[in-house]
Specification:
Length: 336
């Protein structure tokens, strides 16, 4: 059996695939923002991408012109404003959505709901009309609600495929890997911690017991570590002191997930990433777990695996908040 903990090759500056089918058209919706610009830079730098379609409500022609001078083969086109959104999406195989407002000090991800819910609904509506079979990778927070929103919008158009809609939680895994490596003196590139549940506060559940290589911590250290992973976004928001949220690390994580997805679509086997998706693994309709990716999106949900008693308790404590966030997203679309 393939490894549950296979790490994607993450030399972002060089080829990430041995496949000869590297010709994907990828769109970034929200490409002028704090996440969108560095994410677009990383995508432009990848041989997996042949066409890069950048959309936002402002500044995209400038971002596209700037990126187009980089000596890699991806052709970059900028689109600006709602009237150009359809053209931006035509023929896209993967759409990455970092659009929306960032968190500021004192805000929870849920405080972003009212603004970002409308943005995501509008963008996914356009995806349903213009690239209904594309893989959708939603970064816009609160992911615990924006993925149900995206799903309900696609259902309204009759084009919903749960294997192609992903809430990008990769930053939680990236952070868990980094923080565990720091504590144990390991190379973070060789650490892999699955993170399940959702993408906000206590719904973020790092499975330290399933870490590769195997690591152990005293209970107090473990509690502190998990708390830091869960609140790492707030750590960055506070450090930036009102100037934004986690943008650079999120761009890296978004690129990592996109590259893994493209690799799998190109036929690479054994590609595993965690993401927040439609799920039967728990009593929540959506739940993040390790997923085996394939040519058509999710090939197999690998489930929660064996949990420690401590982790089982974390899952139980997260379900209530997760269900509430999911319902809030569904209701937003159903009541429109």
């Amino acid at each position: 059996m393939f490894s549950r903990v296979a790490r994607p090759a993450l030399n972002i500056t060089r080829s990430l695939s041995t496949s000869s089918q590297n010709h994907a058209k990828v769109a970034v919706l929200g490409a002028s923002g704090g996440i969108g610009q560095p994410l677009s830079l990383l995508l432009k730098n990848s041989p997996l991408v042949s066409q890069l379609s950048l959309y936002d409500i402002a500044h995209t022609p400038g971002v596209a012109a700037d990126l187009s001078h980089i000596e890699t083969r991806a052709q970059v086109t900028g689109y600006i404003g709602p009237e150009q959104l359809g053209a931006a999406l035509k023929g896209c195989e993967v759409v990455v959505i970092p659009a929306g407002v960032p968190r500021k000090p004192g805000m929870t991800r849920d405080d972003l709901f009212n603004t970002n819910a409308s943005i995501v609904a509008t963008l996914v509506d356009a995806c349903a009309r213009n690239c209904p079979e594309a893989m959708l990778c939603v970064i816009s927070n609160p992911v615990n609600s924006t993925i149900p929103i995206a799903s309900e919008v696609l259902k309204k158009h009759g084009v919903y495929n749960p294997n192609r809609v992903f809430g990008v939680t990769t930053l939680d895994i990236v952070r868990a890997n980094t923080f565990v490596a720091e504590l144990k003196g390991l190379d973070p590139a060789r650490v892999n911690v699955p993170v399940i549940g959702g993408h906000a506060g206590k719904t973020i559940i790092p499975l330290i017991s399933q870490c590769t290589p195997k690591v152990e911590f005293p209970t107090d250290t473990l509690t502190t570590l998990i708390g830091r992973i869960q609140e790492a976004g707030t750590e960055v928001v506070k450090a930036k002191a009102g100037a934004g949220s986690a943008t650079l690390s999120m761009a890296y994580a978004g690129a990592r997930f996109t590259f893994s997805l493209l690799d799998a679509m190109n036929g690479k086997e054994g590609v595993v990433e965690c993401a927040f998706v439609r799920s039967e693994e728990t009593e929540c309709k959506y739940f993040s777990t390790p997923l085996l990716l394939g040519k058509h999106g999710i090939e197999k949900n690998l489930g929660l695996g064996k949990l420690s008693a401590f982790e089982e308790k974390l899952v139980a404590e997260a379900l209530g908040e997760l269900k509430s966030s999911i319902k809030k997203g569904e209701d937003f679309v159903l009541n429109k």
